[in-house]
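TICKET #2291
ISSUE: user wants both folds in one file
ATTACHMENT 1:
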Amino acid sequence: MPPSGEHSPTSLLVTLIAVITATKLLGEIAQRLRQPAVLGELIAGVLLGGSVLRVLDPTNPVVAALAEIGVLVLLFAIGLETDLRALARVGSAATTVALVGVVLPFAMGYGVVTALGVPTVPALVCGAALTATSIGISARVLSDLGRLHSPEGQVVLAAAVLDDVVGLIILSVVSVVVGGGTVTLGAVTRTTAVAVGFIAVALVLGTIAVPPVFRLVERVQVAGALGLFALAFAFGLAVLASAAGSATIVGAFAAGLVLHPTPHRKEIEHATTTLGHFFVPFFFASVGAAVELRALADARALQVGALLFAVGVLGKVAAGFAPVWFRGHKLLIGLAMIPRGEVGLIFAQTGLATRAIDAQLFGAIMLMVLGTTFVTPPLLGRLGERRDPERPTDLPGEGGVDDLVAGTSRRQGAPGTPTPPESVPGSAP
């Protein structure tokens, strides 16, 4: 934030102008190149960060607060679009894909980096970053291919959600370890119980308390009150999750799960997306700004990043073939599980912020995240037979996570307006 160390309103305004302009412009360029907008926002952060223009300082308290709000809004949006009943309907195939897609990449990632001499805690962060799957990016590409409502698409969506839930638990465990805890079975069990227990309690109590509360809120005539109360609820659960010893993002995600069944979900999603258009790019830009290009050019960072990318791809593709009884297109499932996207970035940023990893390992994880996110749309576009794009109402699409991550625009999503082939990420040439 220019000048260095200054916290004046003018300095903040300069940073706001730079981040908003750069993320939107480069996000548009990324979409035109058939990639999700998040990649453009990451590159914008790299350019604005200390390695190039020195406009955006991710360690600045104001910038860090904006980025923290951004990631909470993003996890809340993911929770809002997660239908637990739909996950149950997909059954054992999705569960198998999810569990193998977590265990295999985590074990392979941890193994390869420890073989290179990386200590235990940084290796845990590297392994954890490989577990997640980007719901927004995968759903967007499958929708463009007309595969979102296919059996394969449903398995991918359910498995991606389960991956993220397990990933959040792993992140909570890693955070405890970084805070001075030890990697013991008791510590892992306790942290897992806190994370799962918090989500379970939030769902039970939320099912009882939320409907009457929101009926009262509905009577408030102030414009936008319902959406803002929902966001306040998400931030409140984030605070409670932190107080309970879990991660704040677990609370935000749980809030989304609680509010998913509410009849007011579309209005809440609209408010969340509107707020997210400002805050979420700050998170991605801050992640990009934390990248040190000199660390990326380091031979060891390139080596670790390449290995993480390789095991990241292999682990998820193998997971697609894990349910041997499933008769669908297993390779399609495996490829759709590859992108780490926004959730992988959360792991990387958390590891860097807690000093569990250094700039070199952060750069390696960033290379893995960028690589897995870049390769998925074109691979799926070539593998999947293109049909009429689906625009579902209850899954990531208009105005939700897809809008915040993959970059669905109002022009693309407008009723009756065909989506130009050149603007569809992952479409076949």
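ATTACHMENT 2:
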Amino acid sequence: MENSRKIIVDLLEQVLNEGAYSNIVLGSKLNKTDLNDKDKSLVTEIFYGTLKYRYSIDKILNYYLRKGFDQVEPLVINILRISIYQIKYLDKVPEFAVVNEAVELAKNNVSIGASKLINGVLRNYLRGKDINYCITNNKIETLCYKYSFSKWMVKLFIRQYGEEVGERILSGLNEVPNITFRVNALKVTNEMALKELIALGYNASKGYICSEAITILKGKNIEKNPLFVEGKITVQDESAMLVAKAMDLTSGLMVIDLCSAPGGKATHISELMNNTGRIDAYDIHKHKLLLIKSNAKRLGITNLYCKELDATIFHKDLENMGDRVLIDVPCSGFGIIRKKPEIKWTKNKNQLKEIIEIQRSIMQNASKYVKVGGKLLYSTCTLNKEENVVNIRWFLDNFPEYKVEPIYFGKYENLIYNTDGSITIIPNQSMDGFFITKFTKIR
């Protein structure tokens, strides 16, 4: 059987040093490994936890690595990271076992010298766990260490939302997300799906906001779930479900989804339209269209058509074609850090300006594809206001033929109804951070 800790450090190397996506490399590796379900669960927890708390872990390691990180091999650094994570944030593995596993891992994969370094660092940490590794009166630095975010990102949230909401965002982005299913109304009712999941041994309950959502607190592999295989359910976060719910969908509409992959919102639209009308799902990545088609087939959807398209380029043949046009634009992804914690470390301030330019070019083109009286939905999975409310202001200033139609889903502690009619969703255990705006074309 493969060494689970070696798997974790290899995955960290791919994500932190090679730019891989955590969910993709983890899923690929776990599907190939011979680890049992319990060990797979522990690998997942340590891998994501180490990514999530990297800033705080590195702050601790910096205290003990006198020569600094640059003088230590990346593999050794990652062995130390997963070990500090287990000691500081987990209580599943005894401390002596964590140290012994780390020493053996280094001895077998690096050198005797590396194993001695790791042994010394971890034993010093165990002796000094009461040390305050963040002695400061600075609020930002305190938040950086407490929630393990880089300083520029903490400053951004506090500046844009204030201290109270900003800290709620930092806390929410560190929550371990529940798995959420969307029930496919074309095949089964919510009540029947919930009963079947419970009968299969899942700890399942109704969703947080959406009527078609089911939350899974504990259960087996999702892809082998018979309800999933039969197309009765699909995996989707409740924040993403709210996009289709906001579109005022009725039977027979012509819907254009410009940035569709992997197709969760497009298939939800079809379900809400009872598989009538037409949905044209576009994406710039041709290989991702296969995923949309596969999901649509599994769900029994027949009114969805896929085509490769660059949404930043105007397409004359789409002009005035859509009763509804959805632009779930590429974004910084700050709202989904719960599920992709590497975003904390792979994004930087300079990238934000480039993303905003792309978003605005898509908004400009999409504005021409909506029929008069039709609706344009703008959504992002980020909490950066420059990509959200500032973009909405820019759009209204430049496209006076549109007005915002306010969205309301009810009173929930994590929903912020903005003065411009848009909605910001603060992340918590049940939902990702998200932003949604609905425009109506009035002339």
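RESOLUTION: both attachments delivered.
EXTRA DETAIL ON ATTACHMENT 2: Residues 4 and 39 are 7 Å apart (CA to CA).
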